[in-house]
Design a protein that fits this description.
The chain has 17 helices and 20 strands. It binds 1-deoxynojirimycin.
């Protein structure tokens, strides 16, 4: 007779929901437009709660939906405790949380603590109050160089190409690590610290289950030097905990305070750090006294390559053990070229880590999607194989909206329709990230392929119709059905966070076994690979089965359950 789990066990299970969860990232302005203004909204997400439940995800992560001038796709937040009126209201947000919770899904929201929008009331107050004021102390203002202070305090480059300092009317300069509309906050200022605690509680009290923390490694800075280092010097400074702007040890003081807030709730609220740091420093963010989990972008940066995939997994599982957290895996998000496209393009050259040198797809995007030639079918075939490989791994997986449809990156967006500051600040040298943010196709026919009643805010290409949800729903072998089935089986098979490599005798074929007889075999090569099994339960592409022998074609993954 089986007995029901004890209450304690049930509670701790709930507290650990994130450890092996599948989290689906929604870029709200491009998911569903319910009110017909061309921009996706919160009510649109609520209207697809059944779709998400059927897909089988455990949680939904929303990229910023806060009031924003959209200088950086919403990562320029003007008010941290509200919903952009173009996307809805707080009541709409509550209704969405209810709809997701009632279907068993958790809700994670994006928090952007490094910088606010220049439209934020604090920044406006800082401009009005002038140099030396407490209002200005919430940001990083500084006098310029040269006799009249007309030169920026340093020659540092922002992430979007321009100088990282912008001058205001009274002659001072403020720091912005990203676009000039995103002013960096001063995390030495107590009011800044307290206000973010208030924001965390505001959303946690509304039922939000977790937070994704934007550029978590950048918040604290030491700019006390009278003469700032040059950009070349800054870039050459070791990132060892004392770097002036990156991954400083003292950033952990902030997360220790945040952890106390998370633990005020039952189950404790979770957080995942977007921290681009050396892997040996990841545990600082991922340990349970800090944010508790950190993104691992290694797979997302790697090519479709057996040795790389194998080593990345081994390394990251070791790191997870060091931190006490679970590992995270991700192949696509709102910042990179979608993985079917990356895998369908030739690799141009590799850096010291063995990763392709250019942000993959950069040249292809610049050519408008013509050069080099994209092998769409092969890219999708590899992407499906990589996805099934990833979904079998111990730990949690982050999926990006539209990958379940096998969407490719969109290259054909005219300059006047582009939105990404990267495109504008580099005069098109870096095409930017709009191509993975094109609104989803829900139907093959109709206005904006079912996204909404009018043209979508980033135009969709004609071929989007072929990938629409209604084209794939219920169709055997479609990418959508593959994701649905894989997520259902993954839930059923879920087991301890362990993996054992299986020697296949072939460099191109990587296989691992989970503790309960769940096995994943990926053929990264192009030659077929044969083995004996009568327990294949899941395939990324058609395989051949004959009298207990499996012939696994190239670039294919299977799941076996013994
Ligand atoms: C990381 C986000 O993922 C990206 O989209 C954004 O542009 C920067 N942080 C700045 O907030």
């Amino acid at each position: 007779m089986s007995s029901a789990p004890s209450l304690d066990a049930a509670l701790s299970l709930d507290a650990n929901w994130w450890r092996q969860a599948v989290v689906y990232q929604i870029y709200p302005r491009s998911f569903v437009d319910a009110n017909g203004d061309g921009l996706g909204d919160i009510a649109g997400i609520t209207s697809r709660a059944d779709y998400l439940a059927e897909l089988g995800v455990d949680a939904v992560w929303l990229s910023p939906f806060y009031p924003s001038e959209l200088a950086d796709g919403g990562y320029d937040v003007a008010d941290y405790r509200n919903v952009d009126p173009r996307l809805g209201t707080l009541a709409d947000f509550d209704a969405m949380v209810d709809a997701l919770h009632s279907r068993g899904m958790k809700v994670v929201v994006d928090i952007v603590p490094n910088h606010t929008s220049d439209q934020h009331e604090w920044f406006q107050a800082a401009l009005a109050a002038g140099p030396g004021s407490p209002e200005r102390d919430r940001y990083i203002f500084r006098k310029g160089k040269g006799e009249d202070g007309s030169e920026p305090p340093s020659d540092w480059r922002s992430h979007f190409g321009e100088n990282t300092w912008t001058r205001v009317d009274d002659g001072e300069w403020y720091l912005h690590t990203f676009a000039k509309e995103q002013a960096d906050l001063n995390w030495n200022n107590q009011e800044v610290r307290e206000d973010f605690l208030k924001t965390l509680r505001f959303w946690a009290d509304r039922g939000v289950d977790g937070f994704r923390v934007d550029v978590a490694h950048m918040l604290t800075k030491d700019l006390s030097a009278e003469e700032l280092p040059s950009w070349a010097e800054l870039e050459a400074t070791p990132i060892d905990g004392n770097h002036p702007t990156l991954d400083r040890d003292d950033v952990q003081e902030i997360y220790a305070e945040w952890r106390k807030v998370f633990n005020e709730y039952d189950p404790p609220r979770t957080a995942v750090a977007e921290a681009w740091v050396a892997s040996d420093r990841v545990p600082r963010y991922a340990n349970p006294n800090s944010l508790g989990q950190s993104f691992n972008f290694d797979l997302l940066q790697a090519d479709f390559n057996p040795a790389h995939f194998h080593d990345i997994v081994t390394h990251n599982l070791e790191l997870a053990e060091t931190s006490g957290s679970s590992s995270t895996w991700v192949l696509s998000n709102h910042d990179v070229v979608r993985h079917p496209t990356r895998y369908g393009l030739p690799v141009v050259g590799r850096n010291a880590d063995g990763n392709p040198t250019e942000r993959q797809g950069g040249a292809w995007l610049r050519s408008g999607g013509t050069e080099p030639e994209l092998d769409r079918a092969r890219g999708l075939c590899r992407a499906r194989a990589a996805t099934l490989f990833m979904l079998g791994l111990p730990g949690s997986t982050y999926l990006y909206q539209g990958e379940e449809l096998g969407l490719h990156e969109v290259a054909e967006i005219s300059p006047d329709k582009r939105q990404d500051p990267r495109f504008f600040n580099t005069q098109g040298e870096d095409i930017g990230r709009d191509g993975c943010r094109v609104p989803l196709p829900w139907t093959a026919e109709g206005s904006s392929f079912g996204f909404g009643a009018v043209e979508a805010h980033i135009p969709q290409p004609v071929w989007f119709g072929e990938c629409a949800v209604d084209v794939q729903e219920g169709v055997h072998g479609s990418t959508l059905m593959m994701y649905q089935k894989a997520l259902r089986l993954r839930r059923e098979f879920q087991t301890d966070e362990k993996l054992e490599w299986v020697d296949t005798g072939h460099d191109a074929v990587v296989a691992f076994r989970r503790p309960n007889g769940w096995m994943v075999v990926t053929n990264f090569g192009t030659e077929p690979y044969g083995f004996v099994s009568d327990a294949v339960v899941m395939v990324s592409s058609p395989i051949f089965l004959y009298e207990g022998t499996v012939t696994l074609p190239g670039e294919t993954t299977v799941w076996i359950k013994e």
